[in-house]
Amino acid sequence: MKNLLETIHNRLNLNQNNLLTIDLFDEFLKENGIAISDTRIKPLRTYIKNATEFISLQPKMDALYTGTNEQFVQRLLEKQLIIPEFSFFRDHITEISKEVQSNCNGKVADYIPELKNIDPNQFAVSICTVDGQVFNFGDHETDFCLQSTAKPINYAIALESQGETYVHKHIGREPSGKRFNEVTLNDQGLPHNPLINAGGMMCCALIEPESSSSLRLDTITKVWQQLTRRKPLVYDSAVYKSEKLTAHRNYALAHLMKEVEAFPTDTDLEETVDLYIKTCSLKVNTANLASAAAVIANGGICPFTHKHIFSNTTIKDCLTMMSFCGMYDFSGEFAFKVGIPAKSGVSGAVMLIIPNLMGITIWSPNLDSFGNSVRGVEFAHKLTERFNFHNFDSLIGNCPKINPRIRKKVSKVKETID
Ligand code: GLU
After folding, report:
1. Whose CA is nearest to atom 7 of ligand 1?
2. pTM for the full model?
3. Of the residues 37, 199, 388, 418, which has the maximum number of CB atoms within 10 A of its CB?
């Protein structure tokens, strides 16, 4: 491999004195969507930052940036990241975000009293590609609760620990055609799918049922910490308490499932509902959620750490469910028009997954009559009108939409599940 600094010197537009300055390097990172805090380039960046003179190209220097992911930097320098013209892409996303921001229709969810207090004007969009290129627009540092965007992850954790056959002995795989919290089960007396409330509670019942409730929450939280690289990641106790006090429908559903013996024997109903509400109350921002979405888009592997958080078969199952059950009773229309696996939650969060390319999250609390974020849905429509991201756009010859990606040549490093 060529000396990294030599390549940087060759690729970057250095200043008139042929100096590689930290400002130039940071500008280059920004242009490519790489955060300056990205651990893959951190030692190299620190080295460049601390160098006061022209950086000589001595191979010995390599030791000074040990810990840098050289393979990644080489690809970055060679414009081999999945979105090579990232600033072009970012400009389009900014334009769509601004258009969508002017839509003030809808209203915030009020059946969970604490959610009524949210400022409906807040709006954020975050992107994270499978190569860890990031972009944030708007209130991306403001926390909100996951609500139903927790469900695909609870489903994935249940699949990892219990296997598909066992999980689907307890949960169906069909859209329900009913509201997400309707007190109803399928003909077999099971939740219709893992992404509505009954299925969400069932997934919670299947996660480490033999452990204490605090350990089970700990397991779920640790997965979210890996997905988001955010620590600590905690639940919002005000939202949790507020939902717990008013969760009559969820209790009704859980009692119905208990009565018809849908749960595995020995399931503690109270603990299950409590764990479910806590996972819905976990706090993230759009940047965190986009990072989690990028892991899903990347087949279960974190783009930044290369850790294998979920197996690719788990992700395949999860994406399949998201493709037809993720957007409440609008899922069919969404699959038809937008064609991207997605999940929304009543906090106004929407998570979009473009497999092998990127995760996108939108947060805006005003909801439509289905319970989806109004701006989130509009954003998704505008996105796939402009880019060839619909699942089946590849079938359209001479598709007039923009294709911002390049085919990935480098095989991914796979590590064992930790
Ligand atoms: N915690 C909410 C409930 O159980 C989640 C609903 C949602 O976001 O779809 O009603």
Report:
1. 148
2. 0.94
3. 199
Confidence of residue 302 (pLDDT cuts 50, 70, 90): very high
CB 250 near ligand 1, within 6 Å: yes
242 lines ligand 1 (CB under 6 A): no
The predicted pLDDT at position 301 comes to 98
Mutate to test the pocket of ligand 1, among 146, 149, 197 (most ligand atoms within 8 A of CB): 197
203 in a structural domain: yes
Domain of 273: which CATH number? 3.40.710.10
Candidates 39, 36, 29; CA nearest to 305 is 39
| Measured distance CA(251)–CA(240) in Å, rounded | 15
Last residue of a domain, one of 46, 77, 108: 77
**Domain that includes residue 65, residue range:** 4-77
Total domains present in the chain: 2
Going by pLDDT thresholds of 50, 70 and 90, the confidence category of residue 148 is very high
Mutate to test the pocket of ligand 1, among 114, 272, 280, 363 (most ligand atoms within 8 A of CB): 280
Residue 409 maps to a domain: no
**349 and 244 together in one domain:** yes
- Asked if 258 and 189 count as a contact pair (C-beta separation under 8 A), the reply is no
Q: What string of DSSP letters covers 133-174?
A: -EEEEESTT--EE-GGGGHHHHHHHHHHHH-HHHHHHHS--S
Residue 344 placed within a domain? yes
Does residue 281 have its Cβ closer than 6 Å to ligand 1? no
Tell me, yes or no, whether 263 and 378 share the same domain.
yes
Residue 294 and residue 387 in one domain: yes
Q: What six digits make up the tokens of 256?
A: 């119905």
Q: Give the model's pLDDT for residue 4.
A: 74
Reported as a pLDDT band with limits 50, 70 and 90, residue 57 is very low
Per-residue pLDDT averaged across 24-35, rounded?
Answer: 94
CB 41 within 8 A of CB 70: no
Q: Which of 110, 148, 182 to mutate to test the pocket of ligand 1 (most atoms within 8 A of CB)?
A: 148
